[in-house]
Amino acid sequence: MVVSLAAATTALVLCYEAFQWLGELQGHQVLQESQLMQMGRGSAANGEAGAYPEDWAPGGKLAIRLTERPAALNPFLIRDAGARAVCDMVCETLAQRDLDTMEFRPSLATKWEVSDDRLTYTFHLDAKARFSDGQPVTADDVVFTFEVLRDEQICGRACAALLTDLESVLAVDPVTVRFRFARPYFLAFPAIADRYIGPKHIYALGDAK
């Protein structure tokens, strides 16, 4: 499992320029958006059947038309559908929705527990998860991500409203993170699980703002 870094998103910016001529292409197979998202969010990498059409061979290129130019590709700053579409292809979250059932299933986190009072959420990270530079994805990266998302100086805090009642984020150990909410919130789980996790060793240098 790999989470992209700035280099990956930079490459995507260059690829975006090529999308302009997609309207001129004829005779290319078209995938439904749900298929693209399922492919991009790790289903094929996890070996799930049906991730790709049966008549597709490994290799080659996949060109995707975006309806708008992304305003930013930094996962902390996205605030439009175009950016979200790109980040869905190259970034990972703690959990991800199954597009058939809309239920959450493991991604960077292999499992989680929710307290009876619905205030505490504990996520256990996949010890094999790595960023694209080979560094492990740790609880510190998760804590850092949510510190950035709640920082009032960060532009494009699109999800900040969902985290208003988030009281604390604690790294219990290198692969365990505990979230505590001040009061029950029906969107607490997706507010946590559906955030792109960024590498602290890259973005702590100041690139997140």
Global shape: globular
Within the largest sheet, what's the order of strands? Answer: 4-5-8-7
Unreliable spans: 1-28, 40-50
The number of helical runs is 6
Structural class: alpha+beta
Distance between the termini: 26 Å
CATH class label of the largest domain = Alpha Beta
Proportion of residues in extended strands = 15-25%
> In percent, how helical is the residue content?
10-25%
The overall number of domains is 2
Tell me the Rg in angstroms.
18 Å
The CATH architecture of the largest domain can be named as Alpha-Beta Complex
Q: Describe the largest sheet.
A: 4 strands, antiparallel
Q: What average pLDDT do the residues reach?
A: 77
What is the fourth-level CATH superfamily of the largest domain? Answer: Dipeptide-binding Protein, Domain 1
CATH topology of the largest domain: Dipeptide-binding Protein, domain 1
| Strand segment count | 8
Oligomeric state, counting identical vs distinct chains: single chain
Describe this structure in words.
The protein is an alpha+beta fold. It folds into two domains: 2-90, no CATH class; 95-203, Dipeptide-binding Protein, Domain 1 (Dipeptide-binding Protein, domain 1, Alpha-Beta Complex). The protein is built from six helices and eight strands. It has helices spanning 6-18, 33-40, 81-90, 139-149, 188-193, 200-203, and strands at 2-3, 95-97, 104-106, 109-114, 120-125, 130-131, 166-173, 176-181. It has a four-stranded antiparallel sheet with strand order 4-5-8-7. Residues 1-28 and 40-50 have low confidence and may be disordered.
